[in-house]
Amino acid sequence: MSRPKFIAAILCAVVLGGLGAYLARQTTVDHLQAQNAALQKQWQQAQADRQAALARAAGNELELENLRKDSTALAELREQLKTNAPSLDSPPGFYGGTNNALYLSYSTPDPVLRSFMRWVMGGSGDARSKGQKIFEKICAACHQQDAGGKEGVAPPLAGSEWVKAPGGERLVRIVLNGLNGPVQVQGKTWNLAMPPLRENLDDEQIAVVLSYIRSKWGEEGAAPIKADLATTARQQSHPKPETAEELLRVSVQ
Asked: What is the pTM (predicted TM-score) of this model?
């Protein structure tokens, strides 16, 4: 082989070797970049899974807290069942259940009523169906299932001018603070006492049950009562039950 050909062969070998090394290095770089992209995607998925796990844990903690509250209520219920019976000094209430009837209190904090309210409000169904459940459990005990009232117990809600009155402020105050003394309903004077429910019904529960009553037995198409109406009324101190005279001074809109 001549000298020029030998030199040319060496140069070709060098070039080909350099090209091969470059291609090999580039392949390695491409592989590393692909691995990095895959790791980045895995990291992002891990972050998303972590956030989802935290959300589930928060939901589980809330559920556990509600279970703890219900367990406490049931423990208190078992104690009440041992000696449960109203006396002359008992707060106003009613008997619930059929077997081992339990006396439920209206005007003082009652864990059983509160547990029932959480169950109603946390269940499925719209505001009207929830209001109906609350009415059937609490209001109907005195005002009757058909809202027709009962002599010596409670006046009717069906067709009552108090239910039909626009706005709902007076109804909200009656539920929150109770009512005592004579009151005119459909031309008849009723002189009975209604206990306050502010200790066992929150503002949203008051709103849904009164909205249900107004929609079923009040004016057709009556606007629903908003929870903030009860919130505002609750902030006003009223240590004694309302009277009809006081309520009639409350402006309605």
From this structure: 0.62
